[in-house]
Amino acid sequence: MTTRSRFLAALLSLFLFTASFASASAATRNNDDSCDIALLPAATLLLPWFEVDIDAPPGSANTTLFTVVNTSQRPQIARVTIWTDLAYPVMNFNLFLTGYDVQSVNLYDVIARGVLPGTTNHNSPGSRSLPNDANPNFRPGAAFSCSTAPPVPIPPSILGDIRTALTIGAISSCSGRVGSVHTSAQGYVTIDLVADCSLSIPTDPAYMSDLLYDNVLTGDYLWVNQSPITGNFAGGVPLVHIRAVPEGGLPGAVVPTNLPYTFYDRYTPSDARSMDRRQPLPNAFTTRFIQGGPGTLNTDLRIWREGVVAPTASCGSYSANLGPAMATTQNIRFDEHENPTTLAGFIFEPPLPLGPIILPPASSISTAVGGLPPLSTSGDLGGWLYLNLNNPGSTAYSKARPSQNWVVTSMSAEGRYQAAFDATMLANGCTPAPSVEQPIGPGPNTNAATFPSGSPSTTNNDDSCDIALLPAATLLLPLFEVDFIDPQSVARTTLFTVVNTSQVPQIARVTIWSDLGFPVLNFNLFLTGYDVQSINLYDVLARAVIAPPGGTSSSTDEGARSLPNNANPNFALTAVADCQINPGPVPPAIMNDIRGALTSGRISTCGTNQISTTHSDAIGFVTIDVVKTCGLSFPDTAAFYNDLLYDNVLTGDYQSINPNAATGNYAGGNPLVHIRAVPEGGAPGAPTPVTDLPYTFYDRYTPRATPKMDRRQPLPSAFAARFIQGGSGGFNTDFQIWREGVTGAGATCADYQKNTGSSMLVTDVVRFDEHENPTLLPGCPPILCSPFVLVLPETSVTASPSSNYPPLLGADVGGWMYLNLNNGGSTAYSKTRASQNWVTVSMFAEGRYSTAVDATALANGCSPAPAGGATIRPGPNAVP
Question: What is the pLDDT, as a whole number, of residue 234?
Fold first, then answer.
């Protein structure tokens, strides 16, 4: 890049930073009032890609399972549709869900064994659930249509059609091709809230009249590879939660919406485009990869894309969903040194067009084989991918809008480790697709609403309270665990990775906290444009080395698409000089102090005061903030907020690895919690722009004279978390929980015990088994337990059968937990607001299977916390 082009690019970046800084603040606090795809109860759930080995015996077959939870006390009906990988609907069935019901479906049972789950409105509701006819939005005939369980087994002729459609793309009712050819059954699944148990499918004109709009469903799915030769592991992520906006109302109602298009847009009647009111999915993503090396590292991408075939098309038209109209717009691979490659080779000067990649609506591809840009010749084993999956054309809908997509990343190694997580969206689904002429980066904040009808009140990318997988200004690793005593071959550890999704250099301040919220260590990562940096906390705590071999530095050469290392207009004047030498080795005396702080709770600066609970492994949490320079101020000091920046550019993920065959032999992974600045952009420190957020992530640390100085979104208080425990497979579930402590700026060493005391009481916990039977902790009244007896520190990991939680009674081995984690009091902030929390669910079995998924928040962080004993339900849409 020439000096002139670099200078012009820097000026463009300065303009973009200034423009985003001047944009409006949080336009909505409401729970169902934005375009953001967040982990909140929804009206439609999407399983983007499944695989079932229909010819293998049950104990060795690859399969996919999904679970649906009704988070409301009212009964609900969920219509499940199974589609081929070319978006042909081959079958559907209904799940009648009593209030607070949970229903799991193994697709091996459906496709290989021909057995449907037998749900019916004759199932008895639990004691906290309303009667099975208590949903006012059900059609009058719903009780009759749901009165009998689905046929068991599926008739052989129908089952044969289903199998051939999902394997060789042939079905008796159609002369054309309806799917690709696979050795296993492959496709995707949609799950919609509906008004009765009819069998209409989304391609039917009448289907939209069946849809309901209550955002009450949540769920997750996992895939299991039982072969010790090809897999021997499992992976899982949440189902894609697609909310109705605006929510609520009678079936089939045509309600105006500000959504520019909707999830089922191409299936809705042309005169009723707002009939399904489901949020659209995005088009551009960033995701990490690892491949090769001594550990046989592999990365697979499971990709769902919106097809181009119209619902009125003939059977022979479905091959168009694997044709030129399904080509992607732009795909670039960055290695760990920011070297970009495309299918045509290296890119030195943007923009250049790419060779097309054609992907069907449901597909799985490996980063190590054809179909994606090649890995550079640098020798790196990892990096990240930019995927603009917008397709070039369609006869089913106007191409004034982009196509919809979703990406799931699965990384595996050694035939025993797998970590899966959703890729990060670069913008929400209301954002126009980027062109190849644009610099790669987060989408602009401001999106134009197509219909000025009032809901959603914002279509913007960084303008709501929803915690979504979008580039952020702060990343949270809710819990880490590191065994720094044992050799690495058997030692438990946690790794995290940070990606700078912008062409402008950034500085990320990493703070390691004890489980009682005492900041024990921090360091800076200098990230060149499009940089990726991984940190193994075993390196930090066992080897006393940060980012080996020598840390990160502003002297690092930037990649061909990156701006110079001094091109960030919000950096401090001395930032480049300050960041030339970032810490590599940590002095032994300091490291011994850190180890003691994270295990025994003792650190030299606090004498005999405990600043963590006691455990053999190091346990705590990590925050990662975009800042202006490589200083060493902590978030609990006023100086930190003069360093803090507000550009939503960071994304990342983390993995927990237990390599000990006796105690673990598995891994799990998840996205870091992405916390955006609202409003985004601007210079560091005061004066702070006005924000409509009622409080912020760092609210208890910010100077009282300038409240809300950090402008980070707050985290929620109430969650729905699934569990499995016991049974013949030795199922286990751990809840990894981060909670906001009660100590603020200026806390003394003695104060940190408050973060595990009476001020950290949990408001309410209820366990529901698979028959909706609720249980409370022993000694609690049937409806309310106040004050509650459960205390959890700032970060913890506890097993679901532990005495911390209500007991599981009866023969069921699964269900879900309602967790209202709002704490009981604080001296650091006004208790007119809820405390912040995050929950991750880790399920594992047989010493080889492990999955980790974030629990579903029942409302966003701007919602008031429910009272103890209150009716369990998703949070209200209107938040004051």
Answer: 80
Measured distance CA(46)–CA(189) in Å, rounded = 6
CA distance 750 to 745: 14
Assign 1 a pLDDT band (cuts: 50, 70, 90): very low
**Average pLDDT of span 595-617:** 95
At position 693, the amino acid (one-letter code) is L
Q: Would residue 547 be called left, alpha or beta, if left means φ above 0 and alpha means ψ between -120 and 50 degrees?
A: left
Q: Classify residue 728 as exposed, middle or buried by CB count within 10 Å of its CB (0-12, 13-18, 19+).
A: exposed
Question: What is the chain's length?
Answer: 880
The mean pLDDT value for 462-487 works out to 96
Q: Are strands 650-658 and 493-500 parallel, antiparallel or unpaired?
A: antiparallel
SS3 assignment for 287-356: EEEECECCCCEEEEEEEEECCCCCCCCCHHHHHHHHCHHHECCEEEEEECCCCEEECCEECCCCCCCCCC
Whether the pLDDT of residue 672 is over 60: the answer is yes
Q: Are 467 and 861 in contact (CB under 8 A)?
A: yes
What is the helix, strand, coil percentage profile of the chain, to 5?
10, 30, 60
Q: Say how far apart CA 384 and CA 338 lie, in whole Å.
A: 9
Counting residues of the chain whose pLDDT is more than 70, the rounded percentage is 89
The answer to whether the CB of 291 falls within 8 A of the CB of 298 is yes
* Radius of gyration, alpha carbons of the chain: 26
Q: Does position 351 have pLDDT exceeding 60, yes or no?
A: no
Under 8 Å between Cβ of 232 and 27: no
One-letter amino acid of 107: L
User: What average pLDDT score do residues 631-650 get?
Assistant: 95
Q: Cα–Cα distance between 35 and 422 in angstroms, integer?
A: 17
Greatest mean pLDDT among 191-195, 319-323, 703-707 lies in 191-195
- At 58 the three-state DSSP class reads coil
Are 276 and 243 in contact by the 8 Å Cβ rule? The answer is: no
Q: With contact defined as beta carbons under 8 Å apart, do 243 and 215 qualify?
A: yes
Asked whether the predicted pLDDT for residue 575 surpasses 80, the reply is yes
**pLDDT score of 250 more than 60:** yes
Which DSSP letter does residue 283 get? S
What is the amino acid identity at position 584?
G
246: cis peptide before it, omega within 30°? yes
**Of 390, 396, 405, nearest in space to 326 by CA:** 390
Phi, then psi, of 576 in degrees rounded to 5 = -60, -40
For the chain, which domains are there? 1-28+471-714 (no CATH), 42-155+185-252 (2.60.290.11), 280-445 (no CATH), 716-880 (no CATH)
Residue 464 Cα distances to 41, 153, 239, 438, 708, angstroms: 16, 47, 22, 25, 15
Average the pLDDT over 659-664 and give the result. Answer: 80
Residue entry with tokens 């690709």: 180
* pLDDT at residue 789, as a whole number: 65
- Lookup result for tokens 């894609």: 240
How many whole angstroms from its chain centre is CA 212?
25
Order of strands across the sheet that contains 673-675: 519-527, 506-514, 618-627, 474-482, 673-675
The Cα–Cα gap between 793 and 757 comes to 8
How many helices (H) and strands (E) the chain has is answered by 8, 37
3 state SS for 356-423: CCECCCEEEEECCCCCCCCCCCCCCCEEEEEEECCCCCCCCCCCCCCCCEEEEEEEEECCCEEEEEEC
Mind giving me the DSSP string for 841-877? EEEEETTTEEEEEEPEESS-TTSPPPPTTPPP-PPPS
pLDDT for 564 equals 96
Averaged pLDDT for residues 499-520:
97
The pair of three-digit structure tokens given for residue 284, joined into one six-digit string: 């551009």
Q: Which residues contact 588 (CB under 8 A, 6 or more apart)?
A: 544
